[in-house]
Amino acid sequence: MNVLEVRDLATHFFTLDGVVRAVDGVSFRLARGETLGIVGESGCGKSVTALSILRLIPPETGRVVGGSVLLEGQDLVKLPESDMRAIRGHRISMIFQEPMTSLNPVLTIGTQIAENVVRHTGVSWSAALDRAREMLELVKIADPRRRLQEYPHQLSGGMRQRTMIAIALSCNPQVLIADEPTTALDVTIQAQILDLMLELKEKLGTAIIMITHDLGVIAETAQRVVVMYAGRKVEEASVDQLFAQPAHPYTRGLMRAIPRLDAEAEVAGRRPRLQEIPGIVPALNQPIAGCAFAPRCPFATGRCRAERPPLIETAAGHSVACWETARVLEAAA
Amino acid sequence: MSEAPSLEVRNLVKHFPIHSGLLQRRTGWVRAVDGVSFAIKRGETLGLVGESGCGKSTVGKTVLKLMEPSSGQILIEGTDVTHLAGGAMWPHRRRIQTVFQDPYSSLNPRLTAGTIVGEPLENFGLAKGSEKEARVAALFERVGLRPDAMNRYTHEFSGGQRQRLGIAKALSVNPDVIVADEPVSALDVSVQAQVLNLMIDLQDEYRLAYLFISHDLAVMRHISHRIAVMYLGRIVELADKRTLFSAPQHPYTEALLAAAPVPDPKRKKAGRVVLKGDVPSPAKPPSGCHFHTRCPYALPVCRQQDPPLIEVAPGHHVACLRRPAGGDPVPLTPTA
Amino acid sequence: MVAIPQDTAAPLPRPGRFGTFVRRNPTIFFGGLLLILLVAAALAAPWLTADPFRLSPVNRLRPPSERWWFGTDQFGRDVFARTIHGARVSLLVGLLVAVASAFIGLALGLVCGYFKRVDGIVMRVMDGLMAIPSILLAIALITLTRPGLAIVITAIVIPEVPRVVRVVRSIVLSIRAQPYVESAIAGGTRGARLLTRHILPNTLAPLIVQGTYVCASAMLIEAGLSFLGAGVPPEVPSWGNIIAQGRSFFQIAPWTILIPGAFLALTVLAVNLLGDGLRDRLDPRLARRM
Questions:
Q1: What pLDDT is stored for residue A110 in this prediction?
Q2: Cα dihedral across residues A142, A144, A150, A151: positive or negative
């Protein structure tokens, strides 16, 4: 049963340099209690997708121009803003990369959690504060009673992110969108936060959309993965399928471009070369006729440059937007 | 020893004063770097890895003499530059160059790419006029940029191209040492690979010594020959890459390796040690071993005694009281 | 599908470079245009207008008409001629004060941002200067000497300089911490080259912006001083003087005050528009801070 379904979502920004097609027809489904990873490099539209789901795109710069976002069958794109406000922080919550900027510096942690609870459930302030304490315990902040009285600057980066998670989960949302939740954190703290998120997901049954550029984080957290490039979904698969047999040339390129911690030691003391992906990401203010990856793709043909490849299912639950899948997989074998 | 190391640092210390209150009195010191020693040979990469606030960037800036060290010694190709200031330091600057982290703010937005890359050549009087132009063009080509891009401004370049400019600039004066502070962490994965490959090629070609500062263990593993792990201003472990990754001896190194996410869903995380708590403030480091507050194996003695950095095997240095010199290591089992 | 308003969804027009400039920087365009017109009128005043000093007692206090566009004053002088000539005084004072404060401020600001020892002393002196009201300073200076343009400019420059010094100093301090300056130092750049190539060019944009604000405020202060009789000599047609002389006839001849007043307001507006536009254009970082 899908709790969230995104269909053919398109978000454009209207800038002085032209229309930027930040999200260009993206579809995916999120099942109850599932963790879906969205991975891609900067500017691929992964964060804009998240903001579009929550309708947080600043209206003076951009807008969802097409598609639908169905939360249990209800289309959020068409909802009036007042109804949308009741959904944000309640049925869908979001946590961001930089917790300091998402917390209000002049309000205590307790106030910020309790406010969200009161706004969405209408319970009394004291009940909300109880809930806030409970949430801090849940995210494993030591001495929650004292922490409730503290301000964001008194907390460490890791604790701030725990607080953000506490706020996000305080109303038992069905969906939690985490946009690079650990990118600003040190690696040992990142491990703590990822472990915590997975544990809470098990406990509360919240479905998670994990947005990151880090394939390592994806491998550790996600069950299914959507790979995005230049505003489009280029591949979707279960995490095991994706890492075992990536089918899109871009995904394959990414996997070989990252230095591996678990790689075999180098041969005879020589450092191995990383596989490069030549070229750079295309500018999104010009319409892209064919496959957006074609200019950087070793398999590209004339058709790739002219026609946009549709998503084709190559195996159960594994779909790829590529004209040359047969050749790509053959080359890999 | 046949030849002096390209860069040697002995017992380097950098403390920053903390001022507070209305009168801005000095109320304490941040011990950013607290007795760090290492040496880098020609053609070698020493990786300096650690989490934010461990002092790795301060080591880099001090070695470059962008900051004066509080004490200790810095030797470039055997010359002690520790106390050289201003004009006296200047001729030595040619030998040690740098590539910065942020390719956006480390290049002057008002200068053309060619001017930026050629500036060190002018500064040290190595070339000017058309000879300079020719050398800059050659540098552009060497780092994979088109020489006709020399007259463009830096905002017209992508992040990876800007980092190539930074590398070309550092390379222009034939340095012995390059200090690279997180040179790829602001770049996307696909571009990161291009820059890392370039840095490795250049090192092999010119026998450069790299001090490579990063928080990313995978990048470290790829580019370094030896790696020093820093925690709160001190080196806790220093070993060649293979040893460090296959048989880490310090509990902090072990925890760092366990915490780094690996892009392989099959490697399940069963039984990994996730460190509890946060890194303490370098203004108030814990007594004894700085790591004892988070160490799963800490003994009562760790609270009181500073662990010295001891060579437990040839080239493998560890600062942990549970790794006494000569003796067998105390088995690592978590204390309750 | 969500309905898309036509204006934004339609492909953006691709106007010429000038059109693009105007669309992106409307304040620079309109402020600049207004200022250019005023400067042109001021420069061409001798050819454009009648003699501003010619008395014509027969034609006293005539309302605006075809012959006297802006009417005449109590001595029958042509208000149009006087107003346009007044623009010369205002613009000259504004320009000279802006240039003088910018130069002094830049020099002091660079020194303060560069040498920590000097910084403390100079900045305390600046704090002291900032506490002096320019009107009082001007009156004091004029009682000591003869009234004249130089005194007015000096009296306005002294309290304006600290404002510029503060801006330049804070910019120098922030530029010095920029990675590209560190990178230049690491690359062996030092002394004059570091200053002229890396630090100075990056202070110029905010300095120009600050200059426009100083210019606008100088013109207002000059008008105030002239109105009080502490500015340029009363026989010189400056806007402050014209307004001062017209004030006893305001009820029967309001044009003698309203027209130079409107010109003053328009000029200050033009300079400020230009300044705001330049600020947004040249230094988005400063725009957010101010």
A1: 93
A2: positive
Q: Which two tokens stand for residue A322?
A: 């590529």
Its domain, for residue C257, covers 51-57+67-289
B165 shares contact with chain A (CB less than 8 Å):
no
pLDDT in tens, B225-264: 999 999 999 999 999 998 999 889 999 998 998 888 888 8
Provide φ and ψ at A210, rounded to 5°: -105, 110
Provide the CATH number for the domain around residue C104: 1.10.3720.10
Residue C35 lies in a domain: no
Q: By the CB < 8 Å criterion, does A228 face chain B?
A: no
**pLDDT top residue among C117 and A14:** A14
In a domain, C33, yes or no: no
Total Cβ atoms within 10 A of residue B250: 29
Check whether A152 has a pLDDT greater than 80.
Answer: yes
Name every chain C residue with its beta carbon within 8 A of the beta carbon of A14: 8
Determine the residue of chain A that is closest to B242 in CA distance.
A265
**A142: closest chain B residue by CA:** B277
pLDDT digits (tens, 9 = 90+) for A175-221: 999 999 998 888 888 999 999 999 999 999 999 999 999 999 999 99
CA B314 from centroid of its chain's CA atoms: 22
C190 touches B at CB < 8 Å: yes
Q: Tell me: the pLDDT tens digits for A306-319?
A: 999 999 999 899 99
Residue C243, in any domain of the structure: yes
Spatial distance between the Cα atoms of A179 and A98, rounded to a whole number of angstroms: 10
The answer to whether the Cβ–Cβ distance between A240 and B257 falls below 8 Å is no
Q: With an 8 Å Cβ cutoff, are B218 and A259 in contact?
A: yes
What type of residue sits at position C276?
A: D
Cβ within 8 Å, pair B263-A277: no
- Asked whether residue C21 is assigned to any structural domain, the reply reads no
**Alpha-carbon distance A220 to nearest alpha carbon in chain B (angstroms):** 6
Q: Considering its fold, how many domains does chain C have in total?
A: 1
